[in-house]
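Appendix B, example 12.
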Amino acid sequence: MAEMLSFAFIRHALIGGVIISVVFGFVSFFIVEQRLSFLTVGIAHAAFGGVALGILLGLSPYLTTVVFCLAVALLILRQVRKNRADYDMITGIFFAATMALGIIFLSLSKDYTFDIIGYLFGSILGIGSSDLLIIAITAPLVALFFFLFFKELVALTFDREVAVSAGIPVNMLETWMIVAIALLIVISIKIIGIILVTAFLVLPASFALKYCQSYRSVIGLGILFSFVIFLVGFFLSYHFDLPAGATIVALGTVLYLLPLRRFAAK
């Protein structure tokens, strides 16, 4: 263990992953209860288009991914409100469109040498000090938003009409929530990967809902679950030379499927 932690890149990966996992566990409740799981899939896959655009323009793929994902998230939200449609239908359209744009952008930049696979499936050991700084700033800000507006977001989650009648600025909160989720997805892509990040966002609350009844206990258990699967998955991936993101998601899925109900508090 001491030898493992003597490497700076291991420490960067561990610190960044712990921060992300805790915030994921917190935010997961709102994503699952508001049925936004497929929206996170759409935003995550939009990152492919953002990365490809950065490669094509010769700009930082990280910067173009942030802008691209935020634009897609807000466009989805606007179309949902404008057409009174559900998130799944609109997200399905943008999911395919952004992936198609990514393929087109890459085909136009044939001589690129960028590691696109690292973005698709995660490259946690490639996290540098600048990546860690971005995570350490952005993730707590996302958590702070959910913490400051916790009561309002809970009200929005369980009964939108009651929240509106209570004078809660539902549309504004929903917009900022989508922006916060999009930012969280973008900064975590290097750890988990475009393909796998949604599973890590959905698993914590999905697991906790099997054993808990109150929303506070769901959030608490979700944070613990997310933290544990990251740590265990990270160390397993290191010792057995496995992809970290895939190992974490696979471990979380196995735990979700295990019949542990008899151990849950009544």
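Confidence is low (pLDDT under 50) at residues 262-266. The longest helix spans residues 8-33.
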